[in-house]
Specification:
By secondary structure, this protein is of the alpha+beta class. The chain is built from 4 helices and 6 strands, in the order H-E-E-E-H-E-E-H-E-H. The chain has a domain of 103 residues: Electron Transport, Fmn-binding Protein, Chain A (Pnp Oxidase, Chain A, Roll).
């Protein structure tokens, strides 16, 4: 199992959310936005899911998962591929609960600051209306795909 570079860990920590892809009962991709709570250099990723729906059903049936995040401004992104385990919310450690609460508080703070600056966004504060997490997705990364276009990687190496 590969470890993750500091760059990849930092990149994912800086994202507001990730796209989680799983396979449905017919083998078709299903994608959903999830909040990443924690990521380690050892390739372990923790996400909390607020709903017991498609992602949950898909992971109970098939452990394959991918996480994708992109930064359009930097024209950079990664896809992490691996296998996931589903753990009930009652088994969440205090550290994971605290990390999630901090992420939600940070998102609320950022939204309030943007609203004060006059930036248009959602008229309410949707983060404050979110339900409590229903379960934890614990992923072990098996492969890292750098989504940066090859010619931009080459420019960076030349410069």
């Amino acid at each position: 199992m590969p470890g993750l570079s500091d760059n990849v860990v930092r990149f994912f920590q800086d994202q507001g959310f990730v796209i989680v892809s799983t396979l449905d009962s017919r083998g078709r991709p299903h994608s959903a936005c999830k909040d990443l709570v924690k990521i380690n250099k050892n390739g372990r990723v923790y996400l909390l899911d607020l709903y017991l729906r498609d992602t949950f059903s898909n992971l109970k049936r098939n452990k394959k998962i991918s996480l994708t995040a992109v930064d359009e401004h930097r024209f950079k992104g990664y896809c992490l591929k691996g296998k996931a385990r589903v753990l009930p919310a009652r088994n969440l450690s205090p550290a994971i609960k605290s990390a999630w609460e901090q992420r939600i508080a940070s998102r609320l703070t950022q939204r309030v600051l943007k609203n004060l600056r006059g930036e248009k966004g959602h008229p309410r504060h949707p983060e404050s209306l979110l339900p409590l997490p229903q379960y934890l997705i614990m992923m072990q990364v098996e492969e890292v795909v750098d989504l940066t276009p090859q010619h931009l990687k080459e420019e960076k190496q030349d410069g």
